[in-house]
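hey so u asked for the seq, here:
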Amino acid sequence: MAMASSSGGAGALVLAFVTVTVLLSPALSAPLDGAGFHSATCPQLESIVLSSVQAALQREVALAAGLLRIFFHDCFPQGCDASVYLKGSGTEQAMGPNTTLQPRALQLVEDIRAKVHAACGATVSCADISALATRDAVVLSGGPNYTVPQGQFDSLAPASANVVDGLPSPRTASVSTLARAFSAKGLRDLADLVALSGAHTVGRTGCPFFSDRAQRMDDAFSRRLAANCSAPSPRPQNLDVVTPDLFDNGYYKALVNSQGVFTSDMALIKDRTTAPIVRQFAQSKDAFFAQFAKSMAKLATAPRPGGNVGEIRRSCFSRNARRAIDTVVDAGDEEGFTASA
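ran it, structure tokens below
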């Protein structure tokens, strides 16, 4: 930075004007907080999110499952940082496990962001909006309410391909594989694994995602799956065959009756370490709800490799543009320079 200098007679002061390029949208960092983090800057945040999710679910109930799946796929690779929302070459959406994320659920979060930023300015991240929308989808579908930690910044980059591709597959994952993946995110209690698997109480899937289960035909339910998948036009398969559109404990009742759709679902009832928890949740919706709320709060604070560092995106689907502006620095200021933008 050039400093002011004086020279020549009559005490003439020569001012040096220096043009400085400033890049906007620097990385931000902050600790997480509980509910109410945005109460001063955006008091209407939660009402905007709730009303938007409610209207969306009235049009399409499947959005609840879509939001839950997006939230899980966002949080597991590198914490809940909205990295899964980034679009384009090399982003998480282009990687194997995420190519079937529900586009309408992704768009819903972006639509909510636009409403929130119109009301409050760019004060709330896509990561926080995604977490709130997912919670509201659970509640509106009949599930438990829970506190959403707020104050997450949006990531500056997607997770690497090897991390995303390492997400456990519902087609092949054993309890030990799932437990290792959950433990790496701070979810070390097997009750976390069983409770969060209960998100399958809503949603549907296609035959390619449970083909291994259907092809085994080792029980009456797998034979039913195989019959549907061999039909000319297979129907989408409900993940919870008891109450498919309600967030309740029907999923666990189905598992007790060997009616789990994914191999990973059936692993929970067949493994001696998780089977007692499955049976408990099948018998008590309250027990499931209490643990699900606790486990979702833990997942929402899954560690981020570099800490809570990032930005508040102006579109959930892309990084903020780094716009250069010219700042004039008056090197004759008393302190040596002044800057204004």
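Confidence is low (pLDDT under 50) at residues 1-25, 324-341. Residues 44-203+239-300 form a domain with the Peroxidase; domain 1 fold (CATH 1.10.520.10).
lmk if thats what u needed
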